[in-house]
């Protein structure tokens, strides 16, 4: 699980202005606002390792519609459009990077352009 955290940390801290803090016992990366949180040991009913990522309107539904095994609506932040991504099974790290970048751009207006 430490490898998962290290890889996601490397992705998120490569973006300008990102800080990391613990939130509810797990890493949360922020750029003025939180944009990615990792749950390496799972959280509540989701006992598998996963991310919660900020996303613009419509992305959550699109990703879940495309692959409901990999993507899900996370508790607490799902109603705001955040999307959950499982980090177990056959994981494509390019997909993880793309989702983290999208999350960063979602909370950082200057990065959207």
Automatic annotation (TrEMBL):
A Gene Ontology molecular function term of the record: DNA binding
SUPFAM superfamilies per record: YjbR-like
Keyword DNA-binding on entry: yes
The keyword NAD is annotated on this UniProt entry: no
Domain of life according to the entry: Bacteria
InterPro entries for the chain: YjbR-like_sf (IPR038056), YjbR/MT2646/Rv2570-like (IPR058532)
Keywords per UniProt: DNA-binding
Protein name (Swiss-Prot/TrEMBL): MmcQ/YjbR family DNA-binding protein
Native source organism of the sequence: Dactylosporangium fulvum
Lineage, uppermost ranks: Bacteria, Bacillati, Actinomycetota, Actinomycetes, Micromonosporales
